[in-house]
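Comment thread on ticket #2218

A.B. wrote:
> Attaching the input chain for the structure job we discussed in standup.
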Amino acid sequence: MLAPAEGLTEAEADARRRRGEGNVPVKGGSRGYGEILRTNVFSFFNLILFVIGAALLTLERYSDALISVGLGLINAVISAAQEIRAKRKLDRLQLLDRAGVLVVRDGQAREVAPDQIVCGDVIRVRPGDQIVVDGPLLDGGRVEADESLLTGESDPVVKHPGDELRSGSLCVSGDGHQQARAVGANSYAGRLTAEARRSTTDKTPLQRRIEFIVRLVMALTALMSGAIIAQAAIEGFSVLRVVQITAVLSGLVPYGLFFLIALAYTAGAVRIARHGALVQQVNAVESVSNVDVVCTDKTGTLTTGQLTLEEIIPLGEHEYGEVATMLGSLAHNAANPNLTALALVAALPGEPWEVRDEVPFTSTLRWSGLSTDDGVFVLGAPDALAHRLRTPAPQNEITERTGLGLRVLLLATAPEVRTLSLDLPMLTPVALVALADELRDEVVETVRKFHAEGVALKVLSGDDPRTVAAIARRAGIDAAEPVPGSALDDLDDAALDAVVARTAVFGRVAPEHKERIVRSLRRQGKYVAMIGDGVNDARALKQAHIGVAMRSGSAVTRDVADIVLVEDSFAALPPAQLEGRKIINGIGISLYVFLARVVSQGLVILTVTMLGLGFPYSPTQVGLTMFTVGVPTVFLTFWAKPTRPDPDMLRNLVRFVIPASIVTATFGAVVYTVLYELVTKGLSEGRRTPHEIIAEFESYTGLTYGIDADFTTASATILAQTGLSTFFCFASFGLILFLAPRSKVFAAWTAPTGDKRPALLVLGLCLVFSAILCVPVFWQYFGLMGPSKPVFFIVLPALLLWYATLTIVLKYRLFDRLLGLSADARH
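C.D. wrote:
> Ran it. Output below, let me know if you need it in another format.
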């Protein structure tokens, strides 16, 4: 075929390329590497830690510096690595392939790379070519374009001269020329690619809550730090002491929670992968547990994309067996079988025919046929064959089955005709053939599980709304009043929200419609998951809280998705949701333990400082929190129950953490004060102290009795710190028993779980910490004293009284009564 236009000259093409009118691939769309590193590594909190760490290193306090800086830096590196990984994947994302295309330059067709095309070029379009720019089909051409990648509609669309060919579609038949009108970032594929590359990762509800809590604790710590450091300056503390105090106060910020979440998410992702769901964004582990609306495409998600034979209805005098053999033979002898022929081949036997002529199925003809020595056999849409039928097909039978979402075809013959062409002979109706989209095996059970968990489903498809509704009903989804996408075009946000709230099935929807529906659900406070497999789903996947792609779907969709279903089955989502809930509930328990420990430590620091009894912690002792809180919470996260996340988590945190912290801090301050005064009075002038005790304190403090003026203060401080750390560690273990009680003995806050693992964990932690106190290398590293009778005889009774007091406070909700909170609001 000759080009209907001469196209551009090479000089014109070069000039347009210099003017920026070239088909340049879309670039960027996400944050740069420098910005990612800066925001994650050099955050405000990390800068504080780095300054403290540098000061401690200058003062040769290497272990203190490691404890102060290490955790924040690890968390920052993990966060930055995850974001860089996501950026690299998005930057590689490309909707169009880079195969050469034919353009007309200087009146001759020549092959060039897609990025050499410029606006105004004339491009040759042939079967199998991907359309790489937007523009009209020129005179003399006629093609069929597969736009399923863009719209989700499976049937090719006939394009006549003047019709728009969109980039990203595929020419399946025909031949013609296209003029490039929109190229590069301005083309349809370019806009889709840019939108897909845009980074839109949402923080999950738990991440937002923890971020709020950490910021709140940071603010309170900053205020407390200012007061304590000011007091230290007035009293003439050394630079080392001020730096150590600052490191301790900074260590109160529960920054380890972010590390715990990253660890829990990673472990959850591994467990979810066993169910067939590959997690690509780690916070999707939590997001999937919050989902209350699932939006899904039809083809590839609810259905396999294949057809099944549902029914054969013989017409006239024809018998079922005769018709079945005829259909099977027609399908088996087709040279280029389509989905319909494959469904018939799978269901019916066939006989070999001597084929004379064949007309394959096209979306324009809407029928296919064979001619043999026994006549002509044609299978096609009833309305496409109606004008060539000797007797009309039974319309009521057709209407009834199309109303059920079935695809109805008509088998007709002309026994007396031996040749076949596009000009059909008069035909005799033989049978109606009803075909159904094949549901995935697990769809019905998965939908039932979603409904049982209170999760609503909405189907968004490019197919006819009636067909989509029928398939949705077969899957168990309420499909009353399906809505076409065109009905959404003129609706404002309020009207759209009303339609989306009451409708479960949408047909003939474009990518823009899917995106608007997801946005509408988010405006209504829903937590939305979007499942898709085509490029037409990519924008909606990006807009949803969690995007889910099929492994067999387009590369673009997989790249932008948070989760990829490796077995192409959304049956993996319900078990993934349960795993996510276990993670959330486990992190919730960890949050209780973390905050109770942090608030208790803060209160003790304030109390001891106001009493003028030194400072109750060193930086290395604060590091014990990682052992007493961090390690057990990892186990608690994995052992949690898959119940619904607590909607009142922040409120219940306050109701538990404040009374538990006040009780724990009170007993901790008493332990510290008693031990401090015991040593101070024992070493004061005029009192006789055994030589071996003095020698022991000299080895701990590095000071000399009777020479160094602050020997008594240093000795009292280290013994009191040892007693306080011992009490706090055992009390932290005890809090686990209150939060996950096996029996009624510790069930003052919540009902017994019957799970003995937390109790065994507490026992194991107590034994390990007792061993630490007995091994010199460990207690010296944490700045503690070795085994001491005063510590034992004061800490043990304090722990028993602490348990009894906290049990009464929690069991009778004394804090709730004091503040007038609802008595029936339980954790």
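A.B. wrote:
> Thanks. Noting for the ticket: The chain has five domains: 10-26+96-197, 33-92, 205-265+578-819, 277-302+441-568, 303-439.
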